[in-house]
Amino acid sequence: MIEAFLLLLAGTTPQAADPLAPARAGKQQCANPNIEKKTCAAMSSYALNTDGSFESTTTMVVSPQPLITMQVKSKGTVKDGATCGLIRSEDFQAATFAMDGKPADPAMADAIRPQVVASIAPMAGKTGCTRETPDGATAKAEVSIDGVARPEMAQRVLWVSPADGYKLGM
C-alpha cells in the first residue's frame, strides 16, 4: 500500500516534451487500474505552477471494505523527464482519512496515521522520482529513491478523464 502511495507522491508522468501534459488536459492519474470495473487503488490530481513545479493530491484506498481512504498532498518538480518529490513525514502527518466518503472520526484517523508515518519513515527526507514507459493499454511507472532504482515499487498507471467514470476501489 505505502509503496503505491510513494509512487503517486513522486508523481508519474509520460516521457514527453511536457511530462505533465495529461494533467494540463484535466486528467487524473489512476494507479493499479481495473479497466473492466473502472476502479483505481489510488487517484492523483495535479495543480501546475507557473515555475514548472506541481502540487499533487493523492487519494488512495487503505481498506476496500468498508472503503477507507487516505488523502495526502505533496509538492514536486520535473527533473530530466521524470517527476520527483521529497518524501516528507509532515505530508503524511497532515493526511486526511475518510470512510465510505465521509470524514473518518478522529479515533480512526489517530489509529491509522502512526502506522502510515512509520511505514514511510525509512524513506522520509529522500527524493522519489518516477518515469512512465508504455505497457499495453496502461503504462509502467518505474520508481527510484535518491537515484536508486526500486523495481519492487513499479506499478501500472493510467491517465483518466473525470468523464471516464473511474473511482476508487479494488
Overview of this structure, please?
- About 5% of the residues have low confidence.
- About 20% of the residues lie in helices and about 45% in strands.
- The strands form 2 sheets. It has an 8-stranded antiparallel β-barrel. A two-stranded parallel sheet has the order 2-13.
- The longest helix is centred in the middle third of the chain and has 15 residues.
- The chain is of the alpha+beta class.
- The two termini are about 10 Å apart.
- Strand 9 and strand 10 form a beta hairpin.
- It has one domain.
- The chain is globular.
Please sum up the structure shown.
This protein has 170 residues and is α+β, with helices and mostly antiparallel strands. It contains four helices and 13 strands.
